[in-house]
Amino acid sequence: MKRKLAGKQGNRPLISGRDSNGYFLPESLAEAVNLLGQAGEGLKVLAGGTDLLVDLYERLIEVEGWLDLGLIPELREIKVRAEQIEIGAMVTHAQLEKSENIKKTLPVLAAAAAEIGSPQIRNRGTIGGNVVTASPAGDLLAPLIAYNAVLELVGKDGVSRVPAGDFFCGPKQTIMKRGQLLSRVLIPRPSSGTIGCWIKIGKRKALVIASISLALVVRLAKGGVIADIRACFGAVAPTPLEIKAVRRLAGGKRLEQLDFSQVGELAAAGIAPIDDLRGTAAYRRNVARELLIQALEKVQSTGGEIIADQADC
Amino acid sequence: MQIRLTVNGEERVVETTATTRLLDLLRTDLKLTGTKEGCGKGECGACTVLLNGQLVASCLLLAPQADRAEIITIEGIGSAEGLDPIQESYLEAGAVQCGFCTPGMILASKKLLEENPRPTVEEIRRGLSGNLCRCTGYHKIIAAVRLSAQKMADKGEGKDE
Prior knowledge:
Chain A is α+β, with helices and mostly antiparallel strands. Chain A is built from twelve helices and 15 strands.
């Protein structure tokens, strides 16, 4: 049985014009980049489809063709190396949630993945899709920034790498250029003494867009001195946001030397929330403050055990 | 375009398009109307099927994404003469009212019990968290899953003897 959709020869004639039958299944990243380079705006890059097919259903997008990344094996891999963890863009939330390696090395990311959507969504939705969709409330984004992830973009002009913290520029807007694909997420392997916490607040426990979320990652040096601390929030600004003032205030101190209320105030002051159907700006400022206090307390009291929490509100 | 997939153990070849959802392929082309369309946005779980053993929302898959896949729909669970223990349990527990969510609930229950034959109530809630029911208030559905687990355990013990 020859696959009608795959194969370079079958692809070419469909790519131009308004051919609504266009469905492309490249089997390598190079082929995908090539196809994307030839195509216009109407060719949609399809990962898990859990956002894109909702947009299609609501007629928010015009589709002239699909570039389905589902047959590119390297995009499905999680590789744990000595210095970094490499996660292919098509790795699903369910893979992240269940991977022993991810749970061990990047527990805040695993905890966030475990709370996305529902089993049905987690089985299809991908880390790459979550990143590229760039919703301010995207659940994996704050953890990725907190872990200093680097995003690898591939285009016809080659490979470029950009820190996750510099990737997002607005709601559903990123620095990615037309013709580029996200191939991998590269995360420096956290040193021992790295502890963290994930908290997502939503109206339900499942299938909920976060009203606000927090990924806190703290790296403790010998003697308990904070070598690095990243407090990153979701759904509090046009992009996922690190409160850098926390790093400036807390770096070099020990957790017990910090006035958590004062650190919490930095969060309340540092975010740029809006009123929307999931909460008001004022609510988000209050909750941001309290979440950071709570997260610091939990990190301190558990000495590093990861807490994935979801408050009822 | 043509896709080839196995549905409830039977190989099917279907002429379809790049924008047809798996849900529509199942209901319209294959006339398997046990799979329901609720929200169309992956939020209600009425369209749940098993794709290569994984729980998915068939409204959030394009038909070509299911090329060469193995699909199980509610029509592939039990039969009119011999219900699956999960189906029996749903009837016995009174977990079916309007019935619209039931196919998805049963598939989610099946997947849950395959992975975790003795789930706690919390684990049942998590396993079924992608499926909405607007009639029952969920208590009877959870009771049905617990009853299923019991039946399957009893059956398993019977087999060992």
